[in-house]
Amino acid sequence: MIDVELESVSKRFARTGDAAAVDDVTLTIGAGEFFTLLGPSGCGKTTTLRMVAGFYFPSAGHIRFGGQDVTRMAPNKRDTGMVFQNYALFPHMTVAQNVAYGLKVRKVSRADAARRVAEALAEVHLDGYGPRRIDQLSGGQQQRVALARALVIRPRMLLLDEPLSNLDAKLREETRTEIRRIQRESGTTSIYVTHDQAEAMAMSDRIAVMESGRVQQVGTPREVYHQPANAFVARFIGRSNVLSLPVATAEANRVEVALPGGGHVFAGAPEGHGLGAGDTALVSARPEHVTVVSATATGALRGRVTAVEFTGMTTHLTLDVDTGGAETRMTVAAVDTPDRIGAGDRVGLRLPAERLWVVRP
Amino acid sequence: MGATHRAPHRGANSAWFPYLLVAPLVLILWGYVVQPMLATFVESVSDDGTANYTRFFTSSGVARTSLLTSLLISAASVLLCGVVGVAMAFLLKRFSFRGRRLIEAFILVPAALPPLIGAVSFQMLYSEIGILPRALQDLFGTERPVLAFDGIAGVLVVHTFTMYPFFYLAASAALAGMDPSVEEAAYNLGAGRVRVWRTVLLPMLTPALVSASLLVFMTSLASYTAPLLFGVDQTMTMQIYINRTNGDLPMASTYAAVLGLVSIAFLLVMRWYEGRRSYLSQSKGISARRREIANPIGRWLAPVASVLATIVLLAPVATIALVAFSADGSWTTEIIPSAYTWENFVTILTEPRAFEPILNSLQMSLLATAGCVVVGVLIAYAVRRLRFIGRSLLDIGVMIAWALPGTVVAINLISAFSTGNGFSFGQALIGTFWILPLAYFVRFLPLVFRASSASLALIDPSLEEAARNLGASWPRAFLNITVRLMLPGVIVGALLAFVHGVGEFVASVLIYTSSTVPISVAINNRMYSFEVGTAAAYGMLQVVLIFVVMWFSGRLESGGGRAASRQAEQWTN
């Protein structure tokens, strides 16, 4: 078990000109932690992972493994185990030869290697698959071979680059549970890259949400969900509604905002939010926390329904809502809505006081 | 971390690594491709300045005529090859008829012949002393051979037969990659057949046809054996040869410089064009459908025409094979030789002096191929996988070697290495054993480079990264994974380079020495001394070698995609 430290790491590619792919990223990943880099494509999460693996060297900053500076160390000296998005299994080798490759490079004796390969394959439920060719395996099996190949060398840390993105939905959920089980048992520090927030939520000890090469927020799944640091995180995680509302009164960790139809509501706010009466606050409201009420209810927002989608578990309403100035588009996920609501209807929306959160722009 | 900490390891991805790998490659390309070309320029102005060049523009003498003739022949070749190649592609890829597979099996045979043997076989078939005109003369009882091709017409016949595959392959690939639903959409929208052709099919084929035209034009411009055998002296390549044998190296260099420049210009145009081309469809599950020929006359005619076409396609090889077994001097005025024997093969394989050219060719070609493999694979890797300033220059450097006609390569090497320079370790190479392997290396390096680069393109870079991540050093990962996976492509490229080396004539004839006569020069010499049978026997060896290699390469490539495409083809039938 080893911790990983990124200190003001930036990466600029010659071909992208001035824009930094990774911009001043500072992270500390604890020993044994399962840490996820989450963000949309092009946010710099894979570039960050590849710098940890040593495939790119940072343009600036330092990377340390357990205090040792590895910033410019060659990838083959870093002793990390990586699982690639496309698995990168060697097509000219059998399953066993693939898994044994790292052991062979490390000059592990033949007998030891054979034993460890068998153990690793058993760990991923591929006992007896050693002699198979790679193209005889299904996508899910290939994924597990890639995992076994990375784990068998007992690496200082596990690096996973969207390892589930080529699997179908059902297999993806099974495999993520499996990966997490193996990681817990071995206690290997893991860095996981994904654009899938559900995956990140379900697997991670902590998540770093990235956008435009910068870390937007680091926190536990619950923190990034319930207390998003800014509007991007709020919208990216759980597609939150972000409303601009005038501040009536401000306290240390909450503010009271005024609703255009009259009435006030409290929203939680981070320490040092710096807002005062008369400022405009950005308030995040989760679609599933907003309730639909009658258009005449007091202390509610008013809006017009533009689309209704029944998805089974919930009904998604899209609405144009009067928030004082311009109309704001909001989405609501209601567990039970009256059947009669349809496009064009005017309704009221009640915001849940204990669930609102003030975000930075 | 302080001074006690050891220096960090630097890997294949550190900033200076690409330059370390690329520097020797650049040096090789500079020394043996670019610098010799510059030496030719220097040589061309060494006697009387630019006077040699002004001849191309002012006088109506040989220089101007040669340039115009070469351009004219090239333009006519493009036209002829275009008509034949595109028609064949449509016929074979769009229609289903009896005998189609027969033609498809042999369609590339004439083009596979080494240049000298190809031209010789056409001479034996269609020239005034050829089999067909004499047979027709006999049939009709005329004074002179009927339908005998000579001069420029003869050259055009050779060009058409050997270069139409450029069009055939390009058009076939374009047709195969075309989504039939696009055509169907046009019909569905109400367009008639002619309109679909004009507005959909031809525009979609245009990129392929333009590329093929450029290729045929370049190849025709570089053609040397056809004008040599059909006696067209006033072409650029022939003038290079004639001036060189007359000892006027500055004039030969002038022609070479002009021809080289034109070829490089064509290369650059082609690269620019290919950068912006391709309408290949993005949709999945393409299956080009073939139409049955419904017309009853067509149904009856198709197999007959197929058999005729097959005979025409195989005639050159058959002729060489026939003549190879003829006794020298037994073919004077007869339609085909009158006496047959094994003697020719016995001679070239057992008589030491006659066997020497075979040994020379194998040895020199093997040496050149070894060089091509090492340099070609590394350049392919550098161009495809590494980021460094001047990457596209390296790419262009290799392709210049491909674009330069063999005659020009030979003149360049003469200009650069008739005295020693740094790249020949101070030795004069002209007149030594080393000049021919060097010429083969320069000429066929692009073949290995292209084959390696193509197979490298199919290998995911993350495979090498995975090996590095598992602890392998760069050389180990490169050899274990990348080179190992490239191997089929590299072998195909190496075999191609090797057979081209064994069949090489164009550059060889300008720079060979009496102790390193290669097979093709021996064939040429035997033809001159009317030992036609022996010449053909040498040719037959080249032909057999080529077909063995083609068969073997086909087997190597038949894994993966090829097999899949064949299955798809069967499925649509």
TrEMBL record, chain A:
<dbReference type="InterPro" id="IPR008995">
    <property type="entry name" value="Mo/tungstate-bd_C_term_dom"/>
</dbReference>
<dbReference type="GO" id="GO:0043190">
    <property type="term" value="C:ATP-binding cassette (ABC) transporter complex"/>
</dbReference>
<dbReference type="InterPro" id="IPR050093">
    <property type="entry name" value="ABC_SmlMolc_Importer"/>
</dbReference>
<keyword id="KW-0813">Transport</keyword>
<dbReference type="InterPro" id="IPR017871">
    <property type="entry name" value="ABC_transporter-like_CS"/>
</dbReference>
<dbReference type="GO" id="GO:0140359">
    <property type="term" value="F:ABC-type transporter activity"/>
</dbReference>
<dbReference type="InterPro" id="IPR003439">
    <property type="entry name" value="ABC_transporter-like_ATP-bd"/>
</dbReference>
<dbReference type="InterPro" id="IPR027417">
    <property type="entry name" value="P-loop_NTPase"/>
</dbReference>
<feature type="domain" description="ABC transporter">
    <location>
        <begin position="4"/>
        <end position="237"/>
    </location>
</feature>
<dbReference type="Pfam" id="PF08402">
    <property type="entry name" value="TOBE_2"/>
</dbReference>
<dbReference type="GO" id="GO:0016887">
    <property type="term" value="F:ATP hydrolysis activity"/>
</dbReference>
<protein>
    <submittedName>
        <fullName>Spermidine/putrescine ABC transporter ATP-binding protein</fullName>
    </submittedName>
</protein>
<dbReference type="GO" id="GO:0005524">
    <property type="term" value="F:ATP binding"/>
</dbReference>
<keyword id="KW-0067">ATP-binding</keyword>
<dbReference type="Pfam" id="PF00005">
    <property type="entry name" value="ABC_tran"/>
</dbReference>
<keyword id="KW-0547">Nucleotide-binding</keyword>
<dbReference type="InterPro" id="IPR003593">
    <property type="entry name" value="AAA+_ATPase"/>
</dbReference>
<dbReference type="InterPro" id="IPR012340">
    <property type="entry name" value="NA-bd_OB-fold"/>
</dbReference>
<dbReference type="InterPro" id="IPR013611">
    <property type="entry name" value="Transp-assoc_OB_typ2"/>
</dbReference>
Automatic annotation (TrEMBL), chain B:
<keyword id="KW-0812">Transmembrane</keyword>
<feature type="transmembrane region" description="Helical">
    <location>
        <begin position="252"/>
        <end position="273"/>
    </location>
</feature>
<feature type="transmembrane region" description="Helical">
    <location>
        <begin position="362"/>
        <end position="381"/>
    </location>
</feature>
<feature type="transmembrane region" description="Helical">
    <location>
        <begin position="12"/>
        <end position="33"/>
    </location>
</feature>
<feature type="domain" description="ABC transmembrane type-1">
    <location>
        <begin position="67"/>
        <end position="270"/>
    </location>
</feature>
<dbReference type="GO" id="GO:0055085">
    <property type="term" value="P:transmembrane transport"/>
</dbReference>
<comment type="similarity">
    <text>Belongs to the binding-protein-dependent transport system permease family.</text>
</comment>
<protein>
    <submittedName>
        <fullName>Iron ABC transporter permease</fullName>
    </submittedName>
</protein>
<feature type="transmembrane region" description="Helical">
    <location>
        <begin position="535"/>
        <end position="553"/>
    </location>
</feature>
<dbReference type="InterPro" id="IPR000515">
    <property type="entry name" value="MetI-like"/>
</dbReference>
<feature type="transmembrane region" description="Helical">
    <location>
        <begin position="67"/>
        <end position="91"/>
    </location>
</feature>
<dbReference type="GO" id="GO:0005886">
    <property type="term" value="C:plasma membrane"/>
</dbReference>
<feature type="transmembrane region" description="Helical">
    <location>
        <begin position="423"/>
        <end position="442"/>
    </location>
</feature>
<feature type="transmembrane region" description="Helical">
    <location>
        <begin position="393"/>
        <end position="417"/>
    </location>
</feature>
<feature type="transmembrane region" description="Helical">
    <location>
        <begin position="146"/>
        <end position="171"/>
    </location>
</feature>
<keyword id="KW-0997">Cell inner membrane</keyword>
<keyword id="KW-1003">Cell membrane</keyword>
<feature type="domain" description="ABC transmembrane type-1">
    <location>
        <begin position="358"/>
        <end position="553"/>
    </location>
</feature>
<feature type="transmembrane region" description="Helical">
    <location>
        <begin position="208"/>
        <end position="232"/>
    </location>
</feature>
<keyword id="KW-1133">Transmembrane helix</keyword>
<dbReference type="InterPro" id="IPR035906">
    <property type="entry name" value="MetI-like_sf"/>
</dbReference>
<dbReference type="Pfam" id="PF00528">
    <property type="entry name" value="BPD_transp_1"/>
</dbReference>
